[in-house]
Amino acid sequence: MGKPTGFLEYERNPIPDRPPLKRVQDWDEIHEPFDADKIQTQGARCMDCGTPYCHTGMLLSNMASGCPVNNLIPEWNDLVYHGRWREALERLHKTNNFPEFTGRVCPAPCEGSCVLGVIEPPVTIKSIECAIIDMGFEKGWVTPEPPAERTGKKVAVVGSGPAGLAAADQLNKVGHQVTVYERADRIGGLLMYGIPNMKLEKEVVQRRVDLMAAEGIEFQTGVEVGKDLSAKQLTEDFDSVILCCGATKPRDLPVDGRGLNGVHFAMELLTRNTQGLLEAKDVTSFDIAAKGKDVVVIGGGDTGTDCVGTSLRHGCNSITQLEIMPRPPDERAASNPWPEWPKVYWLDYGQEEAKELNGEDPRRYLTGTKKFIGDADGNLKSLLTYDIEWKEQDGRYTPTEVPGSEREIPCQLALLAMGFLGPEDTIAEELGLDRDPRSNVQAEYGKFATSMEGVFTAGDMRRGQSLVVWAINEGRAAARECDRYLMGTTKLP
User: Fold this and answer.
1) So what's the pLDDT on residue 134?
2) Predicted model pTM
3) Based on the domain organization, do 393 and 481 belong to the same domain?
4) Quick check: is 303 in a domain?
5) Mean pLDDT for the chain?
6) CB within 8 A of 335, min separation 6: which ones?
7) pLDDT above 90: residue 395
8) Rounded to an integer, what distance in angstroms lies between the CA atom of residue 224 and that of residue 209?
9) How many domains does the chain divide into?
10) CATH number at residue 21
11) What sign results for the dihedral spanned by CA atoms 321, 322, 327, 332?
12) Residue 386: domain span
């Protein structure tokens, strides 16, 4: 701890975002470049408190508290404060394969559990993490490090999202020959096509993929395992297989009018948009673009926010976001104590942009959708919504319609962003893998072994829809158990 009184002397000052009215005019990342001197000062606010919940990675009230990859946060905070950036980078890479991803898109449960946050704004952990890795690339400290020796073992990783990439990276480090299969045309999974460019520029993803390729990992794109290539064939051709296919079945809304033109899953818009940007096309001109339309986003999570931000950049006529839950309180409720994740009201980047443009938060809380209304040609023209009251029935709270609360709102594009139900069935059915009641591939956390010998699973395919940082946690841990299976022992953490 280099500055015992730092938390008393310095105010919280994270890497700032660009002004909303400027950033909605482009697809660049929303953040300003970091100032190294200011970041070093922020490192001084860390108390090295002796109760470092920031890197515990626990689940409290079914939400992450602290860092799921157990980043050595007080250590690299102190190193940054002293200007020892390269050593900080080494510490950061010990626990996190991809800090450039988490430093941009993670909701930072580490900050929610920061001890300083009990009485003051927490340490800017996420900003410091992002600055460390960006400094590392800028200075040329992050270079390919292929393994000195190969084990002769071959591992197939199916899926190139954060779990698959983390597993591949770890297994390659100990000398296994790793091949990653991805059905899309580019590597990255959710990181490439699920998260929009203004949150995570695709050059940042590709930079890491290129590094991993230089270290000896083979990437196969445009190959859908279970269709283009048999999953059983993989189990025969490789010594082990790790399935990291994500939870990609979206939750639908089966109400009247669902089949109208103009009702789409959120990922249809987000994927098409990123593809267009990568191909240097006009992303406002494809058929489901939001330009000139009244847009309604159904769902209040991160994906919903990304739809808001994307629609604004398309030039939508209006934007409304429906949320069935009540508005969170401005401060922690008594039932939500530290170090739980703080369930408080705040504006994410998309809502902040909408408020600047339109004068108000686009979210309508406690609102459900009863019907999609179309015109004579089968095109969506409006939504019929209703107010929700949560009532206790048989010990459970359920959403109940408030009588007489129906209202119609104009809408030519409705985006369903209500989360994901689980993984697709193709591979699990072909291999006869056991599933849990939520349809996820069954594998015990910590072991990650499926019901088929030599086949492991990690990330959203195993745990269900979750955070990028949990996917990295599971990918790393599954790699460890896979290595143990192949070699009888393991040196992986």
Assistant:
1) 97
2) 0.96
3) no
4) yes
5) 96
6) none
7) no
8) 19
9) 3
10) 1.10.1060.10
11) negative
12) 252-418
